[in-house]
């Protein structure tokens, strides 16, 4: 029995070392990409804010991407300000943590512009917090964290060997309060890759 445990432990160590070596090799080749931009998600009166991301290019068409969104909105129900209910303010903050593959399909030329279309599938978690304030009544707040996933894609325009502009539209699914919420997520930003991207 000790022999079997030793063999299993050795195999785990070998595979772990191989995985670490591949990731280290990827970093050494400077296949790291950093990105950022503006993001918007429908639902909860619509929230907008910042997107930050990082990705590792494993080959010319496949990356593993991590995205973080910080989105918020403050809305007022102004019509109630004219009634005895008073002004009602709703503040919403949505944070998304997502990771998954992004697959590019090869460069397409559209009116002299070279565009790289892609598809993406990401999973992760989201944190939603909301507060409702009403004049002469006070405020109430609630928050929740649950899993999420998205499926979508977009296109990238490489305007230098290291810099690219990117836009994507995703079907985004959250699961707050034991219920599913369907949203659309739009991101518009730029990406910097430490290693120059291939040119067709």
Question: What's the arrangement of secondary structure elements?
Answer:
Layout: H1 2-28, E1 32-41, E2 47-57, E3 62-77, E4 88-104, E5 108-110, E6 113-134, E7 138-158, E8 163-174, E9 181-193
Antiparallel strand pairs: 1-2, 1-9, 2-3, 3-4, 4-6, 5-6, 6-7, 7-8, 8-9
- Tell me the strand percentage band: over 45%
CATH topology label of the largest domain: Porin
How do the SSEs run, as a string of H and E?
Answer: HEEEEEEEEE
Secondary structure class reads mainly beta
User: How much helix, percentage-wise, in residues?
Assistant: 10-25%
CATH class of the largest domain reads Mainly Beta
How large, in whole angstroms, is the Cα Rg?
A: 22 Å
Task: Report mean pLDDT, rounded to a whole number.
Answer: 83
Q: For the report, how would you describe the main beta sheet?
A: 8 strands, antiparallel, barrel
* CATH architecture designation of the largest domain: Beta Barrel
How many angstroms separate the termini? 56 Å
Point out poorly predicted stretches: none
